[in-house]
Amino acid sequence: MGDTSGDIGAGGDGAAAGTVADALRQFHEKHGYGPDGGAGRRIAFLHLGRLRIPFPNSRARRAALYVHDVNHLVTGYDTSWRGEARLAAWELRTLSWGGRVALWLLVSAALAWGLVLTPRGLRDGWRLGRATRGVPSLGLGRDALLAMPLSELRARLGFDAGRRIDVPAAPDVRGIEQAPRAKGERADRPGLS
After folding, report:
1. In the predicted model, is pLDDT for residue 83 greater than 50?
2. For the segment 109-132, what is each residue's pLDDT rounded down to a tens digit?
3. Whose CA is closest to 128, among 69, 60, 76, 193?
C-alpha cells in the first residue's frame, strides 16, 4: 500500500481508457502489482514504512482482489493508508463483501487504522457509499465486469459521469510525501484529516 494518486479511474487519465480491464491493467502497472494484481501470490505484504510484513494471501482474498482494485477505480480512492481506510468505509456501507468473513476482517483492520489516520475520511467513504452502490451489487461475472466500459460501470453504480471524487493524496506511513491540505483541514493538526 504505497503512495498513489487517484489518477486512474474515477476522473484521471484512465477514466477514458475504455474498459474496466484496460483501467485495471493501468492500475496494476502503475503500482507494480503485476498483471494479475497480486492474485497469484500465496503471500501478500503489508507495508509499514520500510518494513514489509508478510501475511497469507488467502484464497478468498485472491479471488476478490480484482473487485477491490475495481473499487479503487470507481471511487478514485488511492492505495495509501488513508485511501484504503476510505475505501473500507465505502465497502462496508455498500456491503461489498456479503458473507465473506475473511474479507470483512481485512476491511475491519482498514477501518481501525482509519479511525486513527483519517476519521473524516471514514465519514466521507461512508457518505459516498450511501449515495452509490458496490460492484458486487450488479451481480456480474468477472468477464462481464472487465469487458464493461469503466464509464458505464461508474454510471450503473450511481457515480455521476462528470463527477471527480477529490481525495487529497495522503503521505504514507513513512511521511515521505507531504499531501496538499484538504479544504477545511486545520493547519494546527498536520497529518490528521
Report:
1. yes
2. 889 989 998 999 999 999 999 999
3. 76
Helix axes 81-93, 59-75, angle to 10 degrees: 100
DSSP 181: P
Instruction: Indicate if the pLDDT at residue 188 is higher than 50.
Output: no
Task: Tell me how crowded residue 65 is: count the other CB atoms within 10 A of its CB.
Answer: 20
Residue with cell 477529490: 166
In angstroms, rounded to a whole number, what is the distance separating the alpha carbons of residues 2 and 80? Answer: 6
Query: Is 52's pLDDT higher than 60?
Result: yes
Any idea what DSSP says for residue 54?
Answer: E
Q: How many CB atoms lie within 10 A of CB 97?
A: 21
Q: Annotate 35-46 with b (16+ C-beta within 10 A) or e (fewer).
A: eebbbeeeebee
C-alpha cell of 167?
Answer: 481525495
**Class of residue 109 by CB neighbours under 10 A (exposed 0-12, middle 13-18, buried 19+):** middle
For residue 55, the cross-strand partners are 44
Higher pLDDT among residues 107 and 145, named by residue: 145
Amino acid residing at 113: W
| Whole-number Å distance between alpha carbons of 190 and 60 | 37
Per-residue CA distances from 139 to 12, 18, 23, 73 (Å): 26, 21, 20, 18
Strand (E) or helix (H) holding 152: helix 150-156
